[in-house]
Design a protein that fits this description.
Radius of gyration: 30 Å
Strand content: under 5%
Order of helices and strands: HHHHHHHHHHHHHHHHHHHEEEEHH
Largest sheet: 2 strands, antiparallel
Helix content: 55-70%
Shape: flat
Number of strands: 4
Structural class: mainly alpha
Number of helices: 21
Length: 487
């Protein structure tokens, strides 16, 4: 009786302690939840803004026109959400709505760019003598309403024809419908893997978009080999695309190359199966070079794991493991056997072999592309030189300005690390007597090779580091003079 009372007392104390702790720390949860909903909860809105501004930048639009691209795209995105409907879910503004965000932004930017160039729709003749900002707003009336009105008409047509409240709901129903009549087995899992990674390849959060399918079709209690837990354990090792394979390939075989630098940063997140650094930094998404391995590697890994489980080589997944559990640990915890970890290790080695040739192709393309980028920037700079004009590349809002700002950051880092150097051209007089030398500044960029010297000076001047660069040049020249005097 006493022991029973002690157990009841201990249980009461434990529950009381948990309740008090939860209440006292609730402010931390509220704080983090607010940050999550305020940032990640507006993920689709962020996509609309960044994608529209990037589109304008690629079109070399000035900053004021770039803002209009963002405004038009945001308006079009909000219109297709059909916010007046009682079925509207604010969750669509997060990762769930990224599919429609990308599609609508792409259409809106293209239509807006085309319509505003059509002379018939221009109201320029009515804005003579009006202030610049007001004139620009009036001139954009027809292009803006053409985009918003067109998206609104398309959205209403979708609602009437398919009985849904938005384009987002239509895409969700179409995807879920693909699995409705499929029998359990290997094929549903194969289709799930394929669709999820195709969505991710285009920058859509495939896991969130297919979440209804995973819940309805691939629960752990379905007594089937493939489940969401199976998928998290064997397929998305390192994240979607089985990107732990590309991470290890970079660290092992490309550790001395520039592209391995990103892998060194990404390793801290990929260990926990979070791969956004690689997906958007390398990048993998929207990259035709990595399209094949990004889709094929998960399918091959899935097939190997399915076969190993089907033939009893490895025990089935019987435990749900948090998707952020590191590889090898997750394999053991999910199956209760070291064989699960060994299967993961084998699949990773196969994945590395798949990614390797595409990494080599990507590296070669990057080298060519980088040389072309610096050639274009230097060509633009020389055009300003010929006209005897100040280029001020850092102030530009187009791709040249963006690239110039990246170069400036690299220049600051290399000045700090003292990677710039001087070459000396002798000055000869009379019978071959050297009376001095001209100091020539050189900067060999780790990615782009030798940078045009006048461009270095221009970037340093506009970036506010010219004085620092001058001091370093005097130090290098003084050191060289001392060395020559000593010899």
């Amino acid at each position: 009786m006493i022991i029973k009372l002690q157990k009841i007392s201990m249980k009461f104390e434990k529950n009381f302690f948990l309740a008090v702790t939860k209440r006292s720390l609730s402010w931390i949860y509220d704080l983090l939840d607010n940050i999550n909903k305020g940032c990640y909860g507006l993920f689709s809105v962020g996509i609309v803004i960044t994608m529209s501004l990037s589109y304008a930048m690629e079109k070399n639009e000035p900053s004021d026109s770039s803002i209009m691209y963002a405004v038009v795209s945001l308006a079009a995105f909000c219109v297709q959400l059909n916010v007046a409907s009682p079925k509207f879910d604010i969750g669509i503004l997060g990762v769930a709505g990224c599919f429609s965000a990308v599609v609508v932004t792409f259409i809106a930017c293209h239509v807006y760019s085309y319509v505003k160039k059509v002379h018939v729709f221009s109201l320029e003749k009515y804005t003579a003598g009006i202030g610049y900002v007001t004139a620009m707003a009036i001139q954009n009336l027809i292009p803006v309403f053409s985009v918003i009105g067109g998206i609104a008409i398309i959205n209403q047509a979708v609602i009437k024809l398919f009985g849904v409240y938005s384009i987002f709901e239509l895409t969700s129903k179409l995807i879920i419908g693909l699995f409705k009549n499929m029998k359990a087995g290997y094929l549903p899992g194969l289709l799930y893997n394929f669709l999820l990674h195709v969505l991710w390849l285009f920058g859509f959060h495939g896991s969130n978009i297919l979440e209804p399918v995973a819940v309805a079709k691939f629960g752990l209690d379905s007594n089937e080999i493939f489940s969401k837990a199976f998928f998290d354990t064997y397929v998305v090792m390192g994240g979607c695309g089985t990107t732990i394979c590309i991470l290890l390939a970079l660290l092992i075989f490309y550790r001395k190359d520039r592209i391995s630098k990103l892998a060194k940063i990404g390793v801290y997140t990929v260990i926990f199966n979070i791969n956004e650094v690689l997906n958007f930094g390398l990048p993998i998404v929207w990259n035709p070079v990595f399209a094949v391995p990004f889709i094929c590697t998960p399918i091959v890994v899935y097939s190997i794991s399915y076969a190993a489980t089907y033939f009893g080589i490895v025990p089935p997944v019987v435990n749900e493991v948090t998707w952020t559990t590191p590889v090898l640990f997750s394999g053991y915890m999910a199956t209760g056997s070291i064989k699960g970890s060994l299967l993961q290790l084998f699949c990773i080695m196969v994945g590395i072999l798949i990614y390797m040739p595409f990494l080599h192709i990507y590296k070669n393309i990057q080298e060519v592309t980088e040389k072309e980028r610096i050639r274009e920037l230097v060509g633009l700079f020389k055009e300003y030189e010929e006209r005897n004009e100040e280029p001020n590349l850092l102030a530009r809002s187009d791709k040249y300005g963006s690239f110039a700002r990246i170069l400036l950051q690299n220049l600051k880092a290399d000045i700090k690390d003292k990677k710039l150097y001087l070459l000396f051209q002798p000055q000869i007089k009379g019978k071959g007597h050297c009376i001095g030398a001209e100091a020539l500044l050189r900067w060999e960029h780790s990615q782009y090779g030798f940078i045009y010297p006048p461009l270095i000076i221009s970037l340093a001047k506009d970036g506010g580091i010219l004085e620092e660069l001058e001091r370093q040049i005097f130090d290098m020249a003084g050191y060289a003079i001392r060395r020559v005097s000593e010899e």
